Amino acid sequence: MNRAVVYYSLSGNTKEAAKVIARKLGAKIFEIDLVKPLPKNTVRQMLVGGMQSTFGRRPKIKGVPDNIDYYDEIILGMPVWAGMPASPVNTFIKNYGVADKIDAVFTFSGGGDNDRCLLQLSKSLKNLKNQVALADRSNNAAKDNQEKLEKFVMSIK
């Protein structure tokens, strides 16, 4: 089986987890990047990113190979923006037509709204079997991330 970990990371949380997951599963790893980056200012990032996610915007992305359909299974990682999947992830799912190949997702939230995001994702990802909600490293709940990540990886193996 050909596996890929595809992720979008703004602050580095998701990137760190994606590397661990890919290494433990022997999967290829691809980072979604924005063609037009978000503003540098954190407050503006939250405003722009939150609005994009809330209103279902799909910004132009890069970093995903054209042959992503080669992979049988995709594990998708993202930050949660305003209780929704980060907008670059929405672009990836829609533009690459990979919804049926995504069977596991991992999310990061600083505000504890992972459940809302996962509920939203489950509507479009019909083959979703494994999911884990992780806390931003600045959140006190992040102390449980390592254990949750280990269980997540074991559920995929």
Give the topology.
Elements: E1 3-7, H1 13-25, E2 28-31, E3 33-34, H2 42-54, E4 61-62, E5 73-81, E6 84-85, H3 87-96, E7 102-109, H4 114-124, E8 130-135, H5 145-156
Parallel strand pairs: 1-2, 1-5, 5-7, 7-8
Antiparallel strand pairs: 3-4, 5-6
Structure, explained:
This protein has 157 residues and is an alpha/beta fold. The protein is built from five helices and eight strands, in the order βαββαβββαβαβα. Strands 1, 2, 5, 6, 7 and 8 form a six-stranded mixed beta sheet that branches.
Share of residues in helices: 25-40%
User: How much beta, percentage-wise?
Assistant: 15-25%
Major sheet characteristics: 6 strands, mixed
Strand tally is: 8
From the spread of the alpha carbons, the general shape counts as globular
**Termini separation (Å)?**
11 Å
* Overall radius of gyration: 14 Å
**Count of helices?**
5
Low-confidence stretches: none
Using brief descriptors, characterize the structure shown:
157 residues; 6-stranded mixed beta sheet; 8 strands; alpha/beta
Short description:
The chain is an alpha/beta fold and 157 residues long.
